[in-house]
């Protein structure tokens, strides 16, 4: 007979994940609709934003069963489904870190090297980069896919619990992604410093930037997302401290509610119609020459 253990801690987790879903789902769905309907995907920045919104929505899709499990203390589906939902969560959290870093690099090129980067900052290159990211994060989860056969015939009523142990391959993946997180955090810091220096010390080169405050808010938010949402959970996994990972998973999922702010700050014309958005452009896009580079 299946038994369930409902704890106060589990109810808190269910409430947190529930709030993330209730807030994040409409924000990201509306943002994706606006990006697709009112902004041209000819902009590399818009392409990256669309992929980030899709990644956030896929994370949110994985939350209802987490909420049910933490609220009831039991897992009604198979272990295979448990592993699948866990992998869906991990894949899209990992892809978010790449897309946020790409957005920082794109803003760096647009502000610091607007002319020299024109041949790099194309929608075609943005789509290629997004495809590489999705393929890479899928390959990183191959060790998890290999575990599906092991879990297929087990009969447990729990899910999302702490890991008892990890294989050498899984440990390698954890360490690899920890190194990537640190590297991407360093890239975001470097981008922030270079853009700040350019805005402060080269006013003539940045005179056409419509809203410099919004530019810096984008970089500040990216750093907050990395240091608060992504870094803690990967440090915990890298140290092989698999207990109390759920609170850090909650922090990681919070990024789904914060990412829509990036879309708003990135486009002065975010809420405008497509023809108006083309004329208004991004926060870096005042004037026809600047529009072409951004």
UniProtKB/TrEMBL annotation:
Localization per record: Membrane
Domain G-protein coupled receptors family 1 profile: 27-263
Keyword Membrane annotated: yes
GO cellular component, one term: plasma membrane
InterPro entries: GPCR_Rhodpsn, GPCR_Rhodpsn_7TM
Pfam families: 7tm_1
Single biological process term from Gene Ontology: phospholipase C-activating G protein-coupled receptor signaling pathway
Major site of localization recorded for this protein: membrane
PROSITE patterns with a match to the protein in the record: G_PROTEIN_RECEP_F1_2 (PS50262)
Positions of transmembrane segments: 12-36, 48-71, 91-113, 125-142, 174-201, 213-233, 245-265
UniProt key word DNA-binding: no
GO MF annotation list: lysophosphatidic acid receptor activity
Keywords annotated in UniProt: G-protein coupled receptor, Glycoprotein, Membrane, Receptor, Transducer, Transmembrane, Transmembrane helix
Its membrane topology: Multi-pass membrane protein
Listed name of the protein: G-protein coupled receptors family 1 profile domain-containing protein
Source organism (scientific name): Oreochromis aureus
Lineage, broadest ranks: Eukaryota, Metazoa, Chordata, Craniata, Vertebrata
């Amino acid at each position: 007979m299946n038994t369930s253990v409902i704890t106060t801690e589990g109810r808190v987790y269910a409430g947190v994940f529930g709030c993330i879903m209730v807030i994040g789902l409409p924000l990201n769905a509306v943002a994706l609709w606006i990006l697709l309907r009112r902004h041209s995907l000819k902009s590399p920045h818009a392409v990256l934003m669309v992929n980030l919104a899709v990644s956030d929505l896929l994370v949110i899709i994985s939350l209802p069963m987490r909420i049910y499990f933490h609220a009831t203390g039991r897992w009604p589906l198979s272990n295979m489904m448990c592993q699948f939902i866990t992998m869906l969560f991990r894949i899209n959290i990992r892809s978010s870190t790449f897309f946020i870093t790409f957005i920082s690099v794109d803003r760096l090129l647009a502000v610091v090297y607007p002319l020299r980067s024109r041949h790099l900052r194309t929608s075609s290159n943005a789509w290629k980069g997004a495809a590489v990211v999705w393929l890479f994060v899928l390959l990183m989860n191959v060790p998890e896919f290999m575990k599906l056969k092991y879990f297929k015939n087990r009969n447990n009523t729990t899910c999302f619990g702490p890991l008892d142990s990890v294989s050498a391959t899984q440990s390698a993946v954890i360490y690899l992604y920890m190194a990537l997180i640190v590297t991407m955090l360093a890239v975001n810091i470097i981008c922030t410093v270079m853009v700040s220096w350019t805005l402060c010390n080269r006013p003539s080169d940045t005179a056409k930037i419509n809203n410099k405050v919004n530019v810096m808010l984008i970089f500040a938010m990216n750093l907050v997302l990395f240091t608060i949402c992504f870094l803690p959970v990967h440090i915990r996994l890298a140290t092989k401290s698999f207990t109390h990972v759920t609170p850090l998973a909650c922090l990681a999922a919070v990024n789904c509610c914060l990412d829509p702010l990036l879309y708003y700050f990135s486009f002065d014309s975010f809420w405008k119609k497509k023809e108006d958005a083309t004329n208004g452009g991004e926060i870096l896009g005042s004037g026809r020459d600047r529009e072409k580079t951004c």
